[in-house]
Fold these 2 entries.
Entry 1:
Amino acid sequence: MSGHNDAIEDADAAIVEGKAPPSRGRPLDRERILSAAIDYIDDSGLAGLTMRRLGERLGVEAMALYRYVQGKDELLDGVVEALVDAMDVDSDVIDAPQDGWQDFVQRLAHGVRRVALAHPKAFPLIASRPPEAPWLRPPLRSLRWVEIFLAGLEAEGFSDEAAVASYRAFSSFLLGHLLLEVATLGADVGPLDVVDEAPEPEGLASYPHVQRLRPALSIDTSSVEFEEALEELLNRMALMRHETTHD
Amino acid sequence: MSGHNDAIEDADAAIVEGKAPPSRGRPLDRERILSAAIDYIDDSGLAGLTMRRLGERLGVEAMALYRYVQGKDELLDGVVEALVDAMDVDSDVIDAPQDGWQDFVQRLAHGVRRVALAHPKAFPLIASRPPEAPWLRPPLRSLRWVEIFLAGLEAEGFSDEAAVASYRAFSSFLLGHLLLEVATLGADVGPLDVVDEAPEPEGLASYPHVQRLRPALSIDTSSVEFEEALEELLNRMALMRHETTHD
DNA sequence: ACGGCTGGTTTACGTTGTAAACCACACCAT
DNA sequence: ATGGTGTGGTTTACAACGTAAACCAGCCGT
């Protein structure tokens, strides 16, 4: 299995001289745990993530994790929280100066997308765990984000209704699009583990259109489709803005 | 817990005269199992669904289920399959005569939505389980549907590209929108169980827009928002059609 | 030297999915 | 009637999971 267990025991015998603390290096903290969890999900799928295995990956016994995490649920919540944080780092939406709401929205969308694509197997968690506040929808689930979004739009003339409507349109667009993109990226979304490449859907022959268009139905890895859809959305938002704005 | 266990034992004693077979009525079949599973999820959440409990609900031991279902995974697949079937019954998309692709698409959308709202806690399964064919995306995951969709559009002048693009736009729209709708309906989406009503998100005070607009952020139970978004989509599809069509 | 904290391990238990063996009846040909 | 073969279920068993509870081992300031 591992082969570095012996290494650990070696250390166990060799700690006499260094200041080497028990298990490994620094004493483990919540952040290390969360990022280890994400790593694990990224390369072995959500289904395989288990307290014991996560512990093992960190060179520690499963129960050790419970000092930093309330339980598995809380750990998963922590994972989505971490992903969300990664998103705003990745979209520069907090500090970077924005020119116009379109730029802002675009930046946001791309930031979220980058993270989604970077962690295809973890992303669905965002959609599948209930947010802290029920009216806070994935993937924009942090209060800060929603605030920035709404404030940003209103600062540029969106009415309350227009801003809220835009928020909804934006988040549902992003969620749907990214979930589908991510799903065709080898994700095993959900409780199930990797399902090895379905051989050839039975009875394909009786569905001529599907059969003929099959290659086209696979998602393109390029971002062109996303780009176009996003463009659409921006237009739509622009319309919303003028429908109810009063400047 | 139940109190009809005794009833069963009564029957056990009383089977002498009737032809009453062992456990209960007819001898259990896959369909009964699946619909029991859906019922269970509907009123106790996906997380609580367990082979033993499902068996119990059917008046049978857990292992009995394995005669009709390969395992839990296969059972969950069965559940989504059942839901998808329910959708096409519910949207009359197979037999009912359609007048124009817009009507067709609208029917489809509403059929899917009805099922989603009828089973808010089960619907996310559709999004979370990998489809038989990887290019077959939720929520339109049956070959038949995709075929009908594509064929329907092409019959009315959509080019291959336009039809495929429409298919994608449609499914990602539907998925995103419904997932969000369903999520704010008391669903416990995913592996976690019901999380009891978050008390009041901490630090709400520092997010004025969010705070002020909070009621508006909750989804409206009416279908107006869905209707509008769908309308948007139809317009967009109409554009796609003429962009690449050649008649 | 010593009580207490910190960070971890051990042990233990209940619950889950499921393999394997087992059983009871119904049905049928002999 | 008599045995053989399904069919539809139960029993038993086990490994893996999440996690509570008790238990260490060093380090700390006094």
Entry 2:
Amino acid sequence: MPRVVDPAQRRQDLAAAVLRVIRRDGLEHASVRNVAQEAGLSMGSLRHYFTSQSELMAFAFETVIERIQARLGDLTGERDPRRRAETILVELLPLDADRRAENEVWLAFTARAAVDPTLRALRDEGYDALRDGCRAIVAELSEAGLAPTDVPAETERLHALLDGLAVHAAMRPDLHTAESLAAAISRHLDALAVERSRGD
Amino acid sequence: MPRVVDPAQRRQDLAAAVLRVIRRDGLEHASVRNVAQEAGLSMGSLRHYFTSQSELMAFAFETVIERIQARLGDLTGERDPRRRAETILVELLPLDADRRAENEVWLAFTARAAVDPTLRALRDEGYDALRDGCRAIVAELSEAGLAPTDVPAETERLHALLDGLAVHAAMRPDLHTAESLAAAISRHLDALAVERSRGD
DNA sequence: AGGAACGTAGCACGGCCGTGCTATAAAACG
DNA sequence: CGTTTTATAGCACGGCCGTGCTACGTTCCT
């Protein structure tokens, strides 16, 4: 058979197939057979790229986490702390179809990570990255006088709010529009500024 | 064989067995066989109480949701709005082993509900109940001058914070102690009061 | 006392699963 | 051109799964 694409691309395609199956049928149906079929390959061929199912799943989860981390890194440009914070945070919310899809599979993997050590390590990595991002945002706001001085406490609150909104968006996409999600973040940032100017 | 317990109790026991299996091995291992073994029954006997696996799973999920709803209902006693709010909210957090266990299986079921219509209906019921509870709390605080006047927006924020904290507690039980979770809620309630007295 | 309903157990069928193995053809390389 | 590597396909084994069915003892009701 001809080499039609390079191996790395094939692995990406297979990861994408995994995500499609998970979204459509759930993580429990993301079997080697189903994923191979989704990608238009035979089982044997898939196993040429991933020697085990867990390797395939881990790779698929990694791609999701990497995409989330990449969004966090995109904080160039904007220099005003408030707008900068809002820009980054909104970027992380599931506002369009792509991010909604990622968010759904993130939730599925996160749940399974409770009993799968490999996935757990990846999930923790993503958790830490997001928390660090939240901390950086809060610290910057705090330094600019736009958030309370207790950075750890406000990091906890912002991080929980962000993931809570993501979970809610996955559970009830009808009730959580792009606008309402973004508005919730915006309101929280406003609130932080008010708290600082008043309480601390 | 003798009737040793009444059927309703047996169903409760089986639901409890489901939850234990889910916590230990994950939802994907909560098969009829494994649950029957966990409960010390034969498959055939289990099927006397639940004619299908989905019925068993739905029942188990219901028991979790009912427990959460029951906590929301326990709002008698305390009359001071602030303390009342804190009491109820803290009750909902996974602060002890029992609530942590519930929280973990809630997460597992919630993820599966994305592709299982029966579970989705139950999950939505729980979501609505929790949101209504949050709304009632925010409304009461707002009326007492202890929270901003925009009740829907603050309900969204409080609800997301609550579920976000629960998810984080499930993901990283080591990083989220009972104290830190309760402190996050307490801080948020303080913040609401500050916002009201300042911003609105 | 005797039949009906209940609770428990166990088996067997068909299905999906992950993975090890072999075969084959294209490509890469010497 | 021949050989080795790579990519693809397919099969078969053993395992777990849900569920339908039968059997058997116990309890209950009349």
